[in-house]
Amino acid sequence: MLITAKVQAVDLQAKFFRGFADASRLAILEAIREGPLTVGEIVTATGLSQSNASNHLGCLRDCGLVTARQQGRYVYYQLSDERVATLLRLADELLAEAAQSVYACTRYNAPTQPETE
């Protein structure tokens, strides 16, 4: 039972990090890192289309990484928790030291192979 709980915790953690693993979602998180932005401002900051940005914002909201606040006719998106910004900052710090290795890594780009029994 303990092993099952650990596997479930690891699976949940992997699912959580998928929010950060998509380049478009990460660009949105980086854009709103400094403060709330509207979809139009996010589009300008990221270069994403409005529909693409809205789709990814929906995903980020559903996963609890971003919140939305209506103000007049605009909806402002912001990080749901300051710890999300902390994770992004820590990633920047780690990447500053490991950028060459990460860039050269071919394993992340390789297609997943099914396990053989």
Report on this structure.
Helix content is 62%, strand content 10%. A hairpin with a 2-residue loop joins strand 1 (66-71) and strand 2 (74-79). The protein has helices spanning 2-21, 23-31, 39-46, 50-62, 82-104; strands at 66-71, 74-79. The protein has a single domain, classed as Arc Repressor Mutant, subunit A, CATH 1.10.10. The model is unreliable at 113-117 (pLDDT under 50).
N-end to C-end Cα span: 24 Å
CATH topology: Arc Repressor Mutant, subunit A
| Strand line-up of the largest beta sheet | 1-2
Structural class: mainly alpha
Question: What oligomeric state do these chains adopt?
Answer: single chain
Q: What would CATH call the class?
A: Mainly Alpha
Please state the second-level CATH architecture.
Answer: Orthogonal Bundle
Provide a count of the helices. Answer: 5
Shape by Cα distribution: globular
What is the radius of gyration? 17 Å
Mean pLDDT value: 89
Strand count, sense and barrel status of the largest sheet are: 2 strands, antiparallel
What is the element string, with H for helices and E for strands? HHHHEEH
Number of strands: 2
What's the structural domain tally?
1
Share of residues in helices:
55-70%
Low-confidence stretches: 113-117
Give a nutshell description of this structure:
The chain contains five helices and two strands.
Please give the structural blueprint:
Layout: H1 2-21, H2 23-31, H3 39-46, H4 50-62, E1 66-71, E2 74-79, H5 82-104
Antiparallel strand pairs: 1-2
